[in-house]
Design a protein that fits this description.
The chain has 314 residues and is mainly beta. It is built from two helices and 22 strands. Among the domains are: 88-137, no CATH class; 160-209, no CATH class; 256-313, no CATH class. The strands form four sheets. Strands 1, 2, 3, 4, 11, 17, 18, 19, 20, 21 and 22 form an eleven-stranded antiparallel sheet that branches. Strands 6, 7, 12, 13, 14, 15 and 16 form a seven-stranded antiparallel sheet that branches. The protein is flat, with a radius of gyration of 27 Å.
Amino acid sequence: MRSALLVVVFACSRPQAPPPALANRPASGDCDAAMFRAQAISPMRERLGDRELVVADSCYGVSRVVAKLPAAIVTATVNDHRLSRVVTRETPLWAAPGGAPLPGVVVEPGVEVTGAGDWSSVAPKVAIEAGGYVPTSATGLLWSAQPPPGTDGKKLGRYAEVFADPTPTAEHLASIPGSEPVFDRIDPGPAGWLHVTASDEAIRVTGWVAPPPPPRPPSALQHVYDFSDDVIEGDLVHPEGEDGDLPGPIASPHPLATGCIRSRPDDGGSVIGVVTGDLPGDLEDDGWVRVDLATPWGPVTGHARELQDDAEAE
């Protein structure tokens, strides 16, 4: 079950349209770790390729986005023309433009769409495979993220074709691999059919799954081999010069960064993020460390102060 949709409306703080912004241009501001952490959990999202971006602010065709990396939180500005159009609210799925939607199928916000005109095509393949069309009026660039699906979903144990009614000639709704734990409900139905409800990050579907095919008869060419009495003898061989002991921890040869991440190695550089964990880099002059960051909007180079241990600090 998902909780009620949270909608956040941004107040555009820019009185005039800013000049065009580049994706890697750093954002200015204070080095406030608490502020960065708060922005990183904003529910507002935009999509850049196959990556979701957390949006801190958006207006005049430019968004300030935040990414939570393994050891840092970073921010940048991204132009709208780089973003992908997505479904922005829960909407039914159509098998073809116009007419009635597929019964029991809902597309979740954040699913990428393609095409132009009054109808846009969707083909999400997170776990549930279902494709079709949504009205373009239900799409845009910015959406509010919903709580992720629960982790207590069930597996059916076999590939499932979901139909609108418990008959093989009914309209096909979706396909679900048996290894995916996405079934919220599995109830028995007539003649071995199962009435199911399944959901993932992109699709929610309710329908019917046909009974499994009958088991194959045993083959005369099939044999069962028993190796329970076999014994494999010998010693484990280690590479030459090793005694088999596990190596101890190896200290990182790179210095660790701490505090603000700036656009250049001085305190006047624009703040582009903060360090939140062990972030190694390359030592620069005057106690600065250069860090190379792989962000959703591309590689970014930043500069932060070197982390000093207690002995060095004294």
